[in-house]
Amino acid sequence: MSPITCEPVNSETEIRTRSPRKLSWDVIRVLAVFSVVVQHVTHQSPINHAELGPYPFVLPLQFGASTLLVISAFFVCVTVRRGETGTWLRNRLARLLPAYLLAVVITYGVSRAVAPAFGWYVPNVTDLAANLLMVQAWSPTFHWIDPSYWTLPVQVMAFFAAALLWPRRWSRGAALAWLLWSLVVVPLVIRFVWRDDVDSAQWVRSVFDGLALHRVALFGVGIAIWLWTRDRFSGKHLAVYVAAVLVAQDAHSYFADTWSTVAFGVILAGIVAAAGGPDWDIPGLRQLATPIRWLGGISFGVYLVHQELGFVLARFLLDLGVGPWGRLVACVAMAVLLGWAMTRLVEQPCHRWLTGDVWLRARVAGSAVVEAIRDLPQVPQPQAAGPPRSADLGPSGPVPRPAADAPTSLPPSWAMAASQLR
């Protein structure tokens, strides 16, 4: 029996264990995620449901989700180079999809239960299926269970694209530079030539929105920053590219939200500093390192549960007479609590199970079964009766032949087992 080799699982968890985790990245993650939470509570909720406002203050700047996509692209470049690409893709999807799918089901159930009493839109089974399959943006007949989930289909598409392109020449040389600039230029051309909000064909809108072409340049920024850290992009080239992406992002919103673009530019400068400079282990942040790392570790879970469930909580609190500050604090606290639960009870254990020993044991067991089948004795086919051949004749008559079902020898693995039984 041939030996069975067991390759180590190259998971993101192991990568983090091998390399020190920089505090600066957690600072940016926490800033990005909680800017999204506060912006959705104070600014977006009164837009979606007028009765939920006003709040003590309003944060209208939209930059947090874009920041998270840039960080995701940067770490795709960091991790996809380590180990086999298929294993990397499985690890990424195993961390992302289970928590997302459960969050969709929970949010759907809560919305179905409370939306009729609130007079809000009641999602149907078609909406649930579209959100589980991540095709919400492909048709106007589909509704988002939670509008903040728009980043998840984009990330999944980016993971598949990285797994496809990295082993090929697109990951190096002039081809990569052309690819990065196409992520900026091509969506702008499509936006202003074919995809408008009035006259464009529905299939054009579906493809443009379904592929999130107005946001793909964000992944280009993450890749460009990584290339700069590897001395494959000059500082001048990076500055020009980042400036072009900022202008393009503002153009996609028809220059109606320039201050959000400015805020995004500021945080991009922070990402460049985190990627290429020393860790932010400085007085002030050093004393807050433990809670910052903890919040950074549950940031994905917080993102999944904060918006629509936060709107529901705010409506219940409003009906109970809770004031603006109380609603704001309660919604943020709920996002942290449920985000922690989603991380500890769903994201982490599912990732360990889907990438851990259970699959390795299954592969080993499957290989053992295949090897055992190969070692099975070959059963000779019975021959038709007839006169003995000359080769079967001895000096005094026919030579006895072994029975048809009695093998003349055993394979090595079976022979060893038989010797032990004796």
Q: How would you summarize this macromolecular structure in one to three sentences?
A:
The chain has 422 residues and is mainly α. It is built from 17 helices and 2 strands.
Low-confidence stretches: 1-18, 388-422
**Over the alpha carbons, how many angstroms does the gyration radius reach?**
30 Å
Helix-residue proportion: 55-70%
Amino-to-carboxy terminus distance: 21 Å
Structural class: mainly alpha
Number of helices: 17
What does the overall shape look like? Answer: globular
Q: What do the pLDDT scores average to?
A: 85
Q: Beta-sheet strand percentage?
A: under 5%
How is this fold's topology laid out?
Blueprint (H helix, E strand, L loop, with lengths): L11 H7 L4 H26 L15 H17 L4 H34 L6 H8 L18 H15 L7 H21 L8 H9 L6 H13 L5 H18 L5 H19 L12 H9 L1 H7 L2 H12 L4 H32 L1 H18 L18 E2 L2 E2 L13 H10 L1
Helix pairs in contact: 2-3, 2-12, 2-13, 2-15, 3-6, 3-9, 3-11, 4-6, 4-14, 4-15, 7-9, 7-10, 9-10, 9-11, 10-11, 13-15, 14-15, 15-16
Protein name: Acyltransferase
Keywords: Acyltransferase, Membrane, Transferase, Transmembrane, Transmembrane helix
GO molecular function, one term: acyltransferase activity
Structural overview:
The chain has 422 residues and is mainly alpha-helical. It has one domain. It has 17 helices and two strands. The chain has a two-stranded antiparallel ribbon. A hairpin with a 2-residue loop joins β1 and β2. α2 crosses α12. The longest helix has 34 residues. The radius of gyration is 30 Å and the shape is globular. The N terminus and C terminus are likely disordered.
